[in-house]
Amino acid sequence: MKHIGAVQAVVTAAVFDREPTGAELDAIEREMPVIVAEVELLDTQIMTLDRPVNELDERRVRRARNRVMAARRDLTNRTAGAVGGAA
Question: Is the pLDDT of residue 41 over 60?
Fold first, then answer.
């Protein structure tokens, strides 16, 4: 009977067993407004699943989509400014 203990160490990579780096945490922090806006859009869409959509629901979804687009635009502009400013 072969023991698989030695093979186990090769299968479980230590690289995935670590905390996020400071750079990764900073990237998440920069993207947080987009993440929040997307979660709010998803919440709005979920609210409309179990009932007929009325005019107020349409406005909620449209506003949530606009917030997502604005957050993405702001993130893109900040990223482009950081890259352009560093060059």
Answer: yes
d(CA 77, CA 61): 24
Q: Look up residue 21 and give its DSSP letter.
A: P
| SS3 at position 76 | helix
The end-to-end CA distance of the chain, in Å, is 61
Residue 37 near residue 67, CB atoms below 8 Å = yes
Total-model pTM: 0.70
- Sign (positive or negative) of CA dihedral 39, 40, 42, 47: positive
Name every residue whose Cβ is closer than 8 Å to that of residue 45 and which is 6 or more positions away in sequence.
61, 64
- Rounded CA gap, 27 and 73, in Å? 16
